[in-house]
Amino acid sequence: MASEGAPIETKEWILDPETEYRFELDPGTSLAVKLIRGNAEVFGAELAANKPYLFGSECKAAIFTWRGCTIQMSQPSTEYVAEETPMSAYANLHLAFEQMRVRALRNLRGSPVPDYEREKSTDPPRALILGPENSGKTTVCKILINYAVRAGQGWSPLLINTDTSEGGWAAPGALSAAPVHSPLPTCSPASPLGAAATSAPTALSSNALLPIAYWYGHAESKRNPLLMERIIRNLGENINDKYQVDVEGRAAGLIVDTPSSFAAGPGSSDDRHRLIKACVDAFKINAILVVGHEKLNVEMQRAYGSALTVVKIPKSGGVVELDHLYRERVHNYQLHTYMYGQIIPPPAGISSASLGGETLSDLVLSPSSTIINFGDLSIFRIGAETMAPSSALPIGAARAVSETQAVPIDPAQPGSGLLNAVLAVLAPPANTDESERYDEEILDLPISGFIIVTNLDIPHRKMTILAPNQGSVIGRTAVVGSFEWQE
Amino acid sequence: MYQQQYGPPSFPQQPAFAPYPYYQQPAPPPPVPVYHPDPTTFRRDYSNQLAELKVNSRPIIQNLSMIAQEFSRFADIVAQCLEAHIRRVPQWMKLPAFYLLDAISKNVYEPYARHFAAFVVPLFLETYGQVDEATRSKMEEMLITWRSGSPTNKELFGVAAQIAIERGVWGDGASSNNTNGFHSGSGQISKSQVLTELEFTLNQKERAVQANPYDSTSQGHIGILHQLRKLVEAGVSQEELQQILNRLRSLVRAAAPAPTPAPSPPAPVAAPASWSPQPTYPIQAPFPPAAPPMYPFPTYNNVKTETPPSVLPSASGSGLSAQSSILNLLSTLQKVVTENGTPLGAGAPNQEDVSKPELPPDLERESSRNYRDAILAQDVKLTSADITRKRPGVVEFLYDRLAAQCRQCGIRFPDTTFGKKRMEDHLDMHFKQNRKANQNIGRGHSRSWFVGVEDWVHDLSLDVKGKGREDGARPMNAKAAAAAEVAKRDADLRAQYVVVPPGEEAKPVSCPICKEPFKSEFLEDDEDWVWRNAVLKDDRVYHATCHADAANGLALRLRSELAHLRSHSGTPESAAGPARVMTPPSGLKISEALRSVSLSPSPESKLVGTKRKVDDTESSVSGEGDGTPRLKKAALAPQATPE
């Protein structure tokens, strides 16, 4: 395995059963891990033996083993082995969900039910994960999803991301949902839930997911709760439609990841509860999992305990406190990955490795830079640029611009704020019948993709946009949020 | 609209790399192998892997040929290992190794066929001399496929090697490789040779029928071939053998140019567990995203029931003399060969006999029943207290029950018949992806647009349960395939060019649609200046992509016109949601729309206008082509652009 040049510093770790090796990477470093012996998994996705797996972009992850293993790796910035993990609780959750799935499938197929089983619900698991910041919500979602797809039963559960500070498969600022068919790899915080489809051939369908995504446009849910609620309800309707078409697919259930602002936060908790309620209604949630937060657990028990199951689940000791700057950098990684693909330089001495199960060359993407006229694209902002919460307005005062009003933006106006802005290009309305169009339709259209305004040429009324592919955006509608990106 | 292009147009076979001006890939050059061995390590590893090839196991053969493909720079080592392996192993292990040699030569071809050609003649003949009768006939079958095994339908290892082996196997009269036919008269033709070739032709035809059930010509052939086989088995004269052989070869040759009917549907393939040599490697440059099925063909040693001779209508028990019936058959055969397309239903065997062995659906049900029982036997409740109780039960479900693991990506499958089939599909998928990836090198990929509501809702991954699905981990995802198709089409469009008229190299010419000037470049091969991404239509040069977009726009417009007409003609689309309204894009529908649009003088019909616009230099047709309909409501109206 040795190549020419400097000797590679690798280290072997022997892990005892049910322990995990945790690592954190500094900016600009990467890590290659190889499983030498035994079985190991990263957040529920099993590693193949003798394949170097790459991690980068300040990835913080853990390699867990149920029965012990030996792993070999280069040197990360921080590393340690933890003996206490919440994995057995998560595994039990998975088993409980599997029971719900097989009962649901049996019911859908009309198979005979033994007497002692007749009382049991035939609802598939539809779980909402709540928890404060840095509690590992996304990791729990990922483990539960990965275990479900690994069951060998052909489950394709839906994973729904409502955490707009993270962005899921799209870019930050979006809410999205996608069916998952194969384990979600972990290699970089830029694609925490697997990657959206590209034109490249990929071996794992988790690297070519087909999400449906809506544009919220901001990292914080409190910025425009009305809009977020509307999007959540739209997603719920889409999922409902999907279940009508794919009846057996319903048995796999769904898992909803939420932003920490659903769990706690400053200010009025009305918005919070409203958004949780929206999720519970829209996705027909039947289990709320609260990650390590006693108060929230009690709160949820009181509000929903009679109608659905509320379970408090332990929080992993491995979660890392993340600061604002880190999240900012992750946004950059995500947008870069959206446009250019997943590019992680392997550590010295490793000349080739696989990234989330794919060869590196397949993950390099070429976006397209195009100059278009101002008139080629209709650009809007939803609500006013800065908006005080309704409760902060003087009594009796009305807004000049409502939260869900689409305000057109003229790129020719100075201060349009478009330079370097991330724009979501909306899908064309499916309904071409003019009589069925309505004013707020723009709020209900999913995203086709993202473009970045990289240059504004006001005198010539032209702008340069960076688009993910060569498809034309002329005549489309785009919505700007509060995200910016510069290479 | 100024389209800047990153990554060159398609040079599919070139191992060169696209320079991405925006980002240089930091990693050393792909094709990225999974590990990076030196020659010694590679030799050791490959021999070790080879040693596992003891039976005719498709996964192993595929894995080994995949490795060979990835490491074609070590082709000499692979060749040496393989030769040594075949010489060393006991005779019952030789055939699988030959199948590997066959697979590598046909699928990778360059440089392997060259390397193997150096030793294939003595190795084949030597082995042929050692093995038993059954293996011999398998080797003969393989040998026949080598006649047209190269990507250009030529002899896989060259004419000389092919003739040498065939002479060694069947004697002097046998060699067939003169393209003009074969030497007549000299030497004896053995019955077994004719039977082998018959069998081979028959298999080829059966495959053709499988790929295209409406191929009545092949169906006709099959019937006749079955009858011929019966007659030959019964014994015929040397002269007749000669005639049959002649005819067979012309039949095979006639079929050769189109080995696989083009868009073979992603057939409900239950891939066999073992390898069988495939007659010709269907090369189709540039590779279609839905590559033709690779090895899903029935094998000779499969348990599949060949059409039993007794089913045959005429030949069985008829009082005809063998002599006359052979002549009859031959003339029929000839007729079928010449009158390509004459349906000969009489001789066609029952199609169901030919269809591939499908896994009984019960198997899937049974496996899910077993799983259900095991899962329900677990004592777990969804409560805070219960889930924190220690319980190691999950390991059984995540590991023990799934004993077979893919070495490439770690995904596991149950160690049952059903699971094995799934794993084979999964390995097939890897194989195809790898090959596709190698062919795509230098083409440049990009992120696809997200799907719309309609497509997302109807993404029929309900096939996940294994019904008719081709690959294990990746449900036949219509959308992903479509995305790949679009990307490929785009690359193809961009590869088109128009030769710059002499003397006009310096003259700026712009695309009438996007109004961007063409960039001329010098094409080394043709020694001409050309405009890339260009097509010539009605004496005007367009960007190929713009033109295609515009043409697409027309189709889309027609489709929306259709929807329009429908809703105006009293079929109100209910408020079931906007998602349902879009008419599915089907050729039929478009032609329907065309008809209705031209027949009904609908005031909304913009057909004429659109058409004009395609030529109109003023409009941005491509934008409309993307399906954004005319906007009426203020909220969506594009802003006026006083230019």
UniProtKB/TrEMBL annotation, chain A:
Keywords on record: ATP-binding, mRNA processing, Nucleotide-binding, Nucleus
Domain Clp1 C-terminal: 365-487
Coiled coil regions, renumbered to chain: none
InterPro entries cross-referenced by the UniProt entry: Clp1, Clp1/Grc3, Clp1_C, Clp1_C_sf, Clp1_N, Clp1_N_sf, CLP1_P, P-loop_NTPase
Transcription listed as a keyword: no
Source taxon at top rank: Eukaryota
Binding site for ATP: E20, K60, N134, S135, G136, K137, T138, T139
A GO molecular function held by the record: polynucleotide 5'-hydroxyl-kinase activity
One BP annotation, GO: mRNA 3'-end processing
Subcellular location(s) per record: Nucleus
Keyword Cell division: no
Record's GO cellular component terms: mRNA cleavage factor complex
Clp1 P-loop domain span: 131-341
Domain Clp1 N-terminal: 15-104
Subunit structure, interactors included: Component of a pre-mRNA cleavage factor complex. Interacts directly with PCF11.
Function: Required for endonucleolytic cleavage during polyadenylation-dependent pre-mRNA 3'-end formation.
Family as reported in the entry's similarity comment: Belongs to the Clp1 family. Clp1 subfamily.
Protein name: Polynucleotide 5'-hydroxyl-kinase GRC3
Origin organism lineage: Eukaryota, Fungi, Dikarya, Basidiomycota, Agaricomycotina
TrEMBL record, chain B:
Origin: domain of life: Eukaryota
CDD domains to which the protein is assigned, alphabetical: CID_Pcf11
Any one Gene Ontology molecular-function term assigned to this protein's record: RNA polymerase II complex binding
InterPro entries: CID_dom, ENTH_VHS, PCF11-like, Pcf11_C, Pcf11_CID
Biased composition (Pro residues): 258-269
Biological processes annotated in GO: mRNA 3'-end processing; termination of RNA polymerase II transcription
Disordered: annotated segments: 256-275, 340-367, 565-643
Gene Ontology CC terms, in alphabetical order: cytoplasm; mRNA cleavage factor complex
Xref: SUPFAM superfamilies: ENTH/VHS domain
Pfam families: CID, Pcf11_C
Domain CID: from-to ranges: 38-173
The protein's name in its UniProt record: CID domain-containing protein
Organism per entry: Mycena belliarum
